[in-house]
């Protein structure tokens, strides 16, 4: 509650007065060097909670399969699908590397002070980003990347299924497969 009040009008003065009563001197003045965003109005616990909820919604509600079906539809030809599968596999690998890096972020949040495991240069950049977003940033990006990875997995399933069946299908049958995907999605 104190931090929330400190961010309100005259809250800083009130906080300084309370701290002064217990012997702590906090000079007046702006302490933020970064741009003000909606995230700056949240305390760390709220930002982390928001990121956790966002992650849950991304994991459970993002329509990965429907998006994969929609984006795969224009690339149903056998030759095109083989190339697309390679691109999906490459994208999946790049996304994994990126997400793995973010999960190694050891930025102090709240009362936690984990030991850093990343190179100090990149850890410093991630810490800055986390501080600017009050802990929301990296967790939210990881949540969004989970949705991207789920999409890629669904698209790869379609590519495998289509690639395996495409040799046995005529163009008319391939169109039936596309229609079936459309009906299933609705």
UniProtKB/TrEMBL annotation:
Record-annotated Transcription factor AP-2 C-terminal domain positions: 1-155
Region listing for Disordered, in residue ranges: 166-186
A GO term from the CC aspect: nucleus
Pfam families for this protein: TF_AP-2
Compositional bias per record (Basic and acidic residues), positions renumbered to this chain: 176-186
GO terms under biological process: regulation of cell population proliferation
Location of the protein in the cell: Nucleus
Single GO molecular function: DNA-binding transcription factor activity, RNA polymerase II-specific
Domain of life: Eukaryota
Major place of residence: nucleus
InterPro entries membership: TF_AP2 (IPR004979), TF_AP2_C (IPR013854)
Keywords: DNA-binding, Nucleus, Transcription, Transcription regulation
Transcription in keyword set: yes
Family as reported in the entry's similarity comment: Belongs to the AP-2 family.
PANTHER family: TRANSCRIPTION FACTOR AP-2, TRANSCRIPTION FACTOR AP-2 GAMMA
The protein's name in its UniProt record: Transcription factor AP-2 gamma
């Amino acid at each position: 509650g104190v931090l929330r009040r400190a961010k309100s009008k005259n809250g800083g003065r009130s906080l300084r007065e309370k701290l002064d009563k217990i012997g702590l001197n906090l000079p007046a003045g702006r302490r933020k060097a970064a741009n003000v965003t909606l995230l700056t109005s949240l305390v760390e616990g709220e930002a982390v909670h928001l990121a956790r909820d966002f992650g849950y919604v991304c994991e459970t509600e993002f329509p990965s399969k429907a998006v994969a079906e929609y984006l795969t539809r224009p690339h149903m030809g056998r030759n095109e699908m083989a190339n697309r599968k390679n691109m999906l596999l490459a994208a999946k690998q790049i996304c994994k590397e990126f997400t793995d890096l973010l999960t190694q972020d050891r930025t102090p949040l709240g009362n936690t002070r984990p030991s850093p495991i990343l190179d100090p240069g990149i850890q410093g950049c991630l810490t800055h980003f986390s501080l600017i977003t009050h802990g929301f940033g990296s967790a939210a990006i990881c949540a969004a990347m989970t949705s991207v990875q789920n999409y890629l997995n669904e698209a790869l399933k379609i590519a495998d299924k289509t690639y395996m069946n495409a040799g046995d299908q005529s163009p008319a049958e391939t169109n039936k497969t596309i229609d079936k995907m459309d009906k299933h999605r609705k």
